[in-house]
Prior knowledge:
elongated, 227 residues, mainly alpha, 2 strands
Amino acid sequence: MRNQGKIVKSRLVGNYTTIKNEFLRDATLSAKAKGLLCYLLSFPHDFVIYKTRLSNHFTDGKHSLTSGFQELETSGYIMTERIRDKNGRFEGYKHVVYEERMTEKPIAENPLSVNPTSVNQPLKRKKVKKKERTKKEKYDFEFFNDDFETVWCEYLKMRKAIGKPATKHAEMLALQEAQKLCDGNSQLAMKIVEQSIRNSWTDFFPIRSKNGQQKIEKPVKLISCQP
């Protein structure tokens, strides 16, 4: 019989991953999404991998990996939650990876305690509106998206840790400075902020190498991978 491109499996030598066959045979998933899911599931349960660093482990471009990641989210293999601290401040995202499709939607945010009998309820509404307005002002910056917001929270926590917490006014001034340096480029804005986080700087500076070219910096943590 003429060879028509038969595919055979080699012997397993060692250091391999055991995963379910269901998602590999899920006809609704692209090969790209299946490959990405296999990669994420190959890590131990307590391993942490960062979404912004995925492109460092593949020849695929960042756009391609983002597309595959979103496909897994839409299909229910990755569940994303917004994480907030005890004061209700946004801290970032947690992405949980599963080897089977999850049918239930995840909790959008970790729950916060609310006292419905508080006599200061009108004041609370006013504070909520102020928070919403502040967030809207942040999103008025062209580069301010969900990924940048996660890095930005790391920057604010760094400032607090070194004893120089940012007021709302100082935060807006810092965002304006970032806007000048990145010219609306979200990826460049993230690299600039990450540079300041690593060096414990409150100010932002252009990212330059010795030859004057723009230097590519490593991104800061973003996702937890927990099968």
